[in-house]
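Customer escalation, tier 2.

The customer says the design service returned an amino acid string that "doesn't look like it belongs to this structure." They asked us to rerun it and document both sides in this ticket. The original structure tokens are below, unchanged.
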């Protein structure tokens, strides 16, 4: 499980265009958030909230990446449908999701299943995770992450 002061794992995923992206090679500061499934209400609102603040994150030199297990083509469709201005990443194999600790046991209607924990990682200029949010509630989350990114300096 990736936590504060850890580096991002050496895992390669695909972006919405199908281009390989190695997490360990990404330069901070950056935001990496995990969401369960593209084009569902909570995930759509979270992506739209980060998109609404994209220029402010950009002014900090802090790109925002959203990751799910959706296929790149679905992510591209999702981004186009809502005019999203964040980089969406596909982790179909769950390599990054598991190494980051975002693949967890969940429960709904008394049944247990494995799924993505809505979580966010703020990475500093040194490449180390500076803050982790787990079990994220979407409302006001993007603004909270932006405030934390501004505090990094």
């Amino acid at each position: 499980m990736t936590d504060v002061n850890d580096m991002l794992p050496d895992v390669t995923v695909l972006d919405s265009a199908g281009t390989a992206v190695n997490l360990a090679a990404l330069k901070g500061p950056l935001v990496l958030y995990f969401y369960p499934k593209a084009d569902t209400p909570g995930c759509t609102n979270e992506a739209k909230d980060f998109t609404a603040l994209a220029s402010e994150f950009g002014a900090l030199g802090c790109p925002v990446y959203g990751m799910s297990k959706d296929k790149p083509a679905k992510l591209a469709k999702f981004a186009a449908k809502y005019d999203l201005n964040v980089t969406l990443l596909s982790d179909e194999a769950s390599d990054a999701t598991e190494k980051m600790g975002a693949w967890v046991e969940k429960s709904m209607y008394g049944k247990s299943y494995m799924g993505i924990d809505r979580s966010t990682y703020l990475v500093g200029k040194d490449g180390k995770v500076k803050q982790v949010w787990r079990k994220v509630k979407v409302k006001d989350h993007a603004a909270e992450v932006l405030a934390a990114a501004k505090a990094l300096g």
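Tier 2 assessment: The sequence is consistent with the input. The helical segments are 41-52, 54-59, 72-82, 95-100, 141-152. The first helix runs from residue 41 to 52. Sent an explanation to the customer and offered a walkthrough call.
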